[in-house]
Amino acid sequence: MGTRDARVDAYIAKSADFAKPILTHLREVVHAACPEVEETMKWSFPHFMYDGMLCSMASFKQHCAFGFWKGALVFDGEARDKDAMGHFGRITALSDLPPKRELAGYVKKAMALNDAGVKAPTRTKVALKREVVVPDDFMAALRKNKKALATFEGFSPSHKREYVEWVTGAKREETRARRLAILIADSAAGRRIKQLRPTQG
Questions:
Q1: Domain range list for the chain
Q2: Cα distance between residue 145 and residue 185, in whole Å
Q3: Which residues of 3-42 are buried (b: 16+ CB within 10 A; e: fewer)?
Q4: 138 and 182 in contact (C-beta within 8 Å)?
Q5: Rounded CA gap, 53 and 83, in Å?
Q6: What is the per-residue pLDDT for 124?
Q7: Is the CB of residue 186 less than 8 Å from the CB of residue 193?
Q8: How far apart (Å, rounded) are the C-alpha atoms in residues 182 and 42?
Q9: The pTM is what?
Q10: pLDDT tens string 31-51
Q11: Beta bridge partners of 41
């Protein structure tokens, strides 16, 4: 049996009203097509795992995105919409998605690739990481400290992503708060953390 992650529930609940039915639909299609799928959070947005990375979804202020880790292989190299992260362009309504059966077919094809041990093309990984999603509480804390915000905004996308993943990867709220406080303090001092400090929880 697959697993559901409470953090995905929270992610959907915090998303914009237009995004909630889209994310819920995508989640249910993935679980129906792949009953063994396991949910997790990576780069602060939901990912679905099946013998490795399978697919992911994300919501932004005005659109959602959904993509496959091995999208170039799932779609046989067919050019997909490049207007947004993922493989279905800027999703603003359920009508922007393919029919449920077609979407499930893509999920099953991605499963077959993972079953066969096929490696994802490097460019697919880059495409999935293109947008850095910074949680609301993270940005709110940064905005309270102009020096920290300026330092953070000067970081490269990969460094920002590393910060976000470290903070959001905490299992407990107190650990998350402590990590965020550390990053705010160091950023305010103009310091870049070359190696994030390991923290329990």
A1: 6-128, 136-188
A2: 9
A3: eeeeebeebbeebeebbeebbebbbebbbebbeebbbebb
A4: no
A5: 23
A6: 42
A7: yes
A8: 21
A9: 0.60
A10: 999 999 999 999 899 999 999
A11: 46
Phi, psi of 57 (to 5 degrees): -140, 155
What is the length of the chain? Answer: 201
**DSSP letter string, the chain:** --B--HHHHHHHHHS-TTHHHHHHHHHHHHHHH-TT-EEEEETTEEEEESSSEEEEEEE-SS-EEEEETTHHHHTTT---B-SSSSSB--B-SGGGSPPHHHHHHHHHHHHHHHHTTPPPPHHHHHHHTSS----HHHHHHHHT-HHHHHHHHTS-HHHHHHHHHHHHT-SSHHHHHHHHHHHHHHHHTT---SSPPP---
Q: Which residue has the tokens 């992610």?
A: 11
Q: Do the Cβ atoms of 149 and 29 come closer than 8 Å? A: no
**Burial state string for 180-195 with b = 16 or more CB within 10 A and e = fewer than 16:** bebbbebbbeeeeeee
What is the CATH number that goes with domain 6-128? Answer: 3.90.1150.200
Between the alpha carbon of residue 9 and those of residues 74, 113, 163, the distances in Å are 27, 28, 23
* pLDDT one-digit tens code per residue, 120-179: 765 444 444 456 777 777 888 888 888 888 888 888 777 788 888 888 877 788 888 888
Q: Are 90 and 82 in contact (CB under 8 A)?
A: no
